[in-house]
Amino acid sequence: MSSECVFCRIVRGDIPCFKVYEDQSVLAFLDIGPVSDGHTLVIPKQHFARLHQCPAELCAELTSCAARIAEAAVDAVDAEGYNVLCNNGRASGQLVEHLHLHVIPRHSGDNVFSRWPSYEYKPGFADKIAAKIRKKL
Ligand code: AMP
Predict the structure, then answer these.
(1) CATH classification of 6-136, choosing from 3.40.50.80, 3.40.50.300, 3.30.428.10, 1.10.357.20?
(2) For the chain, which end, N or C, has fewer CB atoms within 10 Å of the first or last residue's CB respectively?
(3) Pocket flag, ligand 1, residue 32 (CB < 6 Å)
């Protein structure tokens, strides 16, 4: 628990939130700056900055909770789909350094993520990168 962390403060009840779900280890509340109606953040109550720092069992709880919330949020706002995403580190866009899953209800043509900057690997390069990652596991 960090005294500075905004999400720890929400967990403690020092800062209000629009609560969607709570159990012993997980809290879910509406994002204050939503990219779509029903945009919800699902967090572990315990403070971890990034996904890989969170124990596997808690990760499993967090993910299954996000899946439940996604289904409910899609239903609630009459959406057609959803994204679940998790920014890790400043380079990825993480602003709040307390692990959180974004659950984002989506409608066709809503332009929430209008650009996915995909490209093709140069021949032989994908093989090298995959091997490098395998070696680190
Ligand atoms: P990220 O860029 O993945 O770190 O996202 C952090 C998210 O937290 C942003 O979408 C913010 O709108 C949201 N946020 C920040 N402070 C609060 C707060 N007090 N209550 C709810 N959401 C918040």
Answers:
(1) 3.30.428.10
(2) C
(3) yes
Maximum Cα–Cα distance across the chain: 54
Give the Cα separation of 21 and 62 in Å (integer). 12
> Ligand 1: which residue has its CA nearest to atom 11?
33
Give residue-wise pLDDT tens across range 88-120: 999 999 999 999 999 999 999 999 998 889 999
Distance between Cα 75 and ligand 1 center (Å): 23
Residue ranges with strand state E in the chain: 19-22, 26-30, 40-44, 81-85, 101-106
